[in-house]
Amino acid sequence: MNQLTGILLMSPQADGGFDIVSFLPFILIIVVIYFFMVRPQQKKAKEQKSFRANLKKGDRVVTIGGIHGKIVDVKEGTFLVDAGNNIRFTIEQSAVSMEATKGAPLEKT
């Protein structure tokens, strides 16, 4: 195969247009990535944001660091959390773990 034949095989169609069928696999890959990776991540982020926004005083939470406590005060962007024995600390709303909080056993009071 000479050099000219190799160039002709990689060139667009003879009429000057590109064949859409040659791009179909790439388009399908992008669609699959969107529906199986991007969209679920966006949905999960939206659920987490909604969960954190709906937390209120008295709710039991688990931080992403694994600290269990009860919300004592809610301020814009932060929570004052009581971890027991009058130990209180302030955490960012983003530090509350949705999965760990939902799965944590409730203490009997």
General description of the model:
40% of the residues lie in helices and 19% in strands. It has a 4-stranded antiparallel beta sheet with strand order 1-2-3-4. The longest helix is centred in the middle third of the chain and has 30 residues, at 24-53. The protein is α+β, with helices and mostly antiparallel strands.
Q: N-to-C terminal Cα separation, in Å?
A: 83 Å
SSE ordering? HHEEEEH
As a percent range, the share of strand residues is 15-25%
Overall mean pLDDT stands at 84
Number of strands: 4
Oligomer: single chain
Secondary structure layout:
Blueprint: H1 3-10, H2 24-53, E1 60-62, E2 68-75, E3 78-82, E4 88-92, H3 98-103
Antiparallel strand pairs: 1-2, 2-3, 3-4
Task: List descriptors.
single chain; 109 residues; alpha+beta; 4-stranded antiparallel β-sheet; 4 strands; 19% strand; rod-shaped
